[in-house]
Amino acid sequence: MKKVFIDGKDGTTGLKIYSRISQRDDIELLQIDESKRKDPAERAELINESDITFLCLPDAASIEAVSMIKSDRVKIIDTSTAHRTLAQWAYGFAELGSDFRKKIETFDRIAVPGCYASGFNSIVYPLIKNGFISRDCDIVCYALSGYTGAGKKGIAQYEDDNRDKELDSPRLYALTQQHKHLKEMKVISGLSKEPVFSPIICDYPQGMVVAIGLYTDSMSKKYTIHNIYEMFKMHYDGSKIVKVRKPGYTQAMIGSNNFANRDDMEIEINGNEDRILITSRFDNLGKGACGAALQCLNITLGMDETTGLNIGE
């Protein structure tokens, strides 16, 4: 039985991971005294006692936690932004390719992808990898997310009975194009430059849609919707978690909260012969956070990657 410690279990992602791991009988959860949860010495002791530690912390605290490791056997699964583009860390999106999966299986340091970046890379990485667009392609991305992606302060703001009326409507943010996921979106996808990215936070708890629009004449050749579908279908062939839907699967509207409390992801290709719209739909706290972290845990333990996950049809 592996020993697991969650450093930062009082945050949104940490609480989700703790709740779900505590229901498993194949893992021993190491608990920290609540009065000492910010005590570096106590945290260091539990990290080094564990086989696997989840870091559910701000970036600086995650970097500090890694510096505390003395034991060679400790594996780290970090949910922060701090280590996602470092070569010595595995990027925790196994479905992107066999090389990604192999690193998760073998590396002692695993960085869980960001929620928006998960949707973005699920679309743009296969397009570049399979030669459908160039690394220099101009990409514009917009995305809708439930408010739980804003963390504890954001959740409290949205769930306050006396909240600002502006929160009743979707709100566009990251107006200066400095969102913390942009570096990850560029590096992991293989783009030579950061995309234009417009995230929108909405008045519902969980769920996300990330969308990429492309002109077919900006691609390496004039691909049809069916060509693009076949490429994505082949790229994600055999995945139990990333589903590629046939063209026409959605007839009218793609809702952004349909995958709430699920850990899988759905990719659709829509549009016409001139303009293509590719969407990735999932739960920002599922495949976008907790579900991805637990999938990485399962892979590194050598078990079925869907163990303890909620996977739909």
Helix content percent band: 25-40%
User: Strand-residue fraction?
Assistant: 15-25%
Shape estimate:
globular
> What integer value in Å does the Rg equal?
19 Å
Write down the secondary-structure element order. EHEHEHEEHEHEHEHEEHEEEH
Strand order of the largest sheet: 8-9-7-10-13-12-11
Give the total of beta strands. 13
What does this structure look like?
It is a single chain. The protein has 313 residues and is an alpha/beta fold. It is 30% helix and 21% strand. The protein has 9 helices and 13 strands. The protein has helices at residues 12-21, 40-49, 59-67, 98-106, 115-129, 151-158, 182-189, 225-235, 286-300; strands at 2-7, 27-30, 52-55, 75-78, 90-91, 109-111, 140-146, 171-172, 196-202, 208-215, 242-244, 265-271, 275-282. α3 links the parallel β3 (52-55) and β4. It starts with a strand and ends in a 13-residue tail after the last helix. 44% of the residues are buried.
In short:
With about 325 residues, the chain is an alpha/beta fold.
Attribute tags:
313 residues, six-stranded parallel beta sheet, seven-stranded mixed beta sheet, 21% strand, alpha/beta
SSE layout and pairing:
Blueprint: E1 2-7, H1 12-21, E2 27-30, H2 40-49, E3 52-55, H3 59-67, E4 75-78, E5 90-91, H4 98-106, E6 109-111, H5 115-129, E7 140-146, H6 151-158, E8 171-172, H7 182-189, E9 196-202, E10 208-215, H8 225-235, E11 242-244, E12 265-271, E13 275-282, H9 286-300
Parallel strand pairs: 1-2, 1-3, 3-4, 4-6, 5-6, 7-9, 11-12
Antiparallel strand pairs: 7-10, 8-9, 10-13, 12-13
